[in-house]
Amino acid sequence: MADSYSGASTEADTTGAEGFLDDETLKILGASISSFFALGVVLLVLYILATQVSFTLLQTIIPRFLEALALVLGIVVVSSVLSVTSGIFVGLARVSNTAITKGISAAYVQFFRGTPLLFQIFVVYFGIPVLWPGTFPIQGWELPTAIIALTLNHAAYVGEAVRGGIGAVPDGQMEAARSLGMGYVQSMREVVIPQAWRNALAAVGNDQIILVKDTSLLTVIAIPELMQQFRLVNSATFDPWTPLVLVAIAYLSITIPMGRLVEYLEHRADWGGDSR
Amino acid sequence: MSHLLEFDEVDKYFGDTHVLKQVSLDVDETEVCVVIGPSGSGKSTLLRCANRLEEIQGGEIRLDGVPLSDPDADINRLRQQIGMVFQSFNLFPHKTALENVTLAPLKVRGIDEDMANARGEELLEQVGLGAQMNSYPNQLSGGQQQRVAIARALAMDPKVMLFDEVTSALDPELVGEVLEVMRTLADDGMTMMVVTHEMGFAREVGDRIVLMADGSVVETGAPEQFFENPETERGKKFLSKLL
Ligand SMILES: Nc1ncnc2c1ncn2[C@@H]1O[C@H](COP(=O)(O)OP(=O)(O)OP(=O)(O)O)[C@@H](O)[C@H]1O
Ligand SMILES: [Mg+2]
């Protein structure tokens, strides 16, 4: 299938650009432009490191950034586990045959996908405690807010990814399982979900990487995460680049391994590959 | 001889389309009943109703005297007794050949793994795939996949096997190996209901030919009689188109 697509597109490219842009020229052109661009970025980064980053300041602020990183990591792990787990149920509810389950899950997704995460954080942080005064601690409500808002928001996206993944499993799979005498739940668990999960993996991984970056919004409720540290350091020293570099390193140190993990999981779910 | 599978004035609608019209048909124990007929005549629908993959709107289908639609009957129990093989194989791509065969016995019957594996290996040997047990479906040819699918259905020890054009998706050179497995099954006394366009197979292996047209059974008969000397106009017309 992939072959036929790439085959068709190369054909279209060569015929469309016949004469002055053949495959070879295009390849060289692409390589030159991207090398040129990469070189520019590397030079800019080196320039910033050499002229803008204060290594003495770096030493004093690294510990607080490490703490912030640990905090973000903690929030990410908990909300990831919760949002993926509940997202799977949202996805299952979306494809269920029961009108109520279907309707409620659809409304859930509409709301949490249709309003900004920042708004949802405010609802949980400012809105919920006044509904039942005294029930929620004034101090320390930030972290529960973070977990609740991130989980509710990303469960909607994971749910949509899972729904798409289930939709991409051919009907014949469910029929084959049912015809062997397996029940609906059993067939879902043993046959449909493992395949749906593989189909959904890339989209779920994408969403979870966005979740990592969404923790930056938590700065507005004064959680001492990475952007908060940036603002504190910057307002005290007026040095933007030293903390900015640390922020970048900290986020990438979470998101890059996460991308790798998704690739690994996709590879593991290859089931014999295309090795025929 | 007793009727194993009985269709009793079965009516099936898709929306307003009347797809099965008062179909009555009995399949006896150890009988190979071959269903033929033009495209759209309702052959697949008939098989799918026999497994309750489709619900019927009128009449009754009975397995061993038990109505499939009996509210007290456990549909999952009934389906275990009816093996189904599909045109598109529908193997589970995330399971090896052996795992495909053992999944239902393990999960539905709850038998222990050693027993399931032993039986699974035996079945795969039986369909000539002893060497491919640990291959994933996409590492197998179409003919091999379809033979795994047959072994998978047999693993639940069904009383009757339903085959819906199981060779139609295969390259011509792979058709023979699948028909061979079906022939052996028939020889071993399996009760089978087979929808096929393979007239050679129908004639040779079938005990009875059922011709469907427009949602009705228009003629049934022994293979020699049907192919040599069809009784109905529809039968004559259908056969003349084959030549
Ligand atoms: N899910 C469905 N929804 C609506 N109509 C359907 C559905 N499945 C089948 N039909 C219709 O029912 C009729 C019988 O279809 P069926 O697939 O049983 O025919 P068939 O004899 O198996 O044909 P073929 O030889 O092409 O496989 C056809 O008119 C078809 O269009
Ligand atoms: Mg059909």
Summed up, the domain count of chain B is: 2
Low-confidence stretches of chain B: none
Q: How many helices of chain A?
A: 10
In percent terms, what proportion of residues of chain B is strand? 25-35%
- Report helical residue fraction of chain B: 25-40%
Model regions low in confidence, pLDDT < 50 over at least 5 residues of chain A: 1-17
Helix-and-strand structural type of chain A: mainly alpha
For the biggest β-sheet of chain B, the strand order reads: 6-7-8-3-9-10
- Return the CATH architecture of the largest domain in chain B: 3-Layer(aba) Sandwich
Provide the gyration radius of chain B in Å.
18 Å
Please tell me the overall pLDDT of chain A: 91
N to C succession of SSEs of chain B: EEEHEEHEHHHEHEHEEHH
- SS summary, helix count of chain B: 9
Distance between the termini of chain A: 14 Å
CATH architecture grouping of the largest domain in chain A: Orthogonal Bundle
Largest interface: A-B, 25 and 29 residues
- Note the overall shape of chain B: globular
InterPro entries (chain B): AAA+_ATPase, ABC_ATPase_HisP-typ, ABC_transporter-like_ATP-bd, ABC_transporter-like_CS, MetN_ABC_transporter-like, P-loop_NTPase
Family (chain B): Belongs to the ABC transporter superfamily.
Protein name (chain B): Amino acid ABC transporter ATP-binding protein, PAAT family
Membrane topology (chain B): Peripheral membrane protein
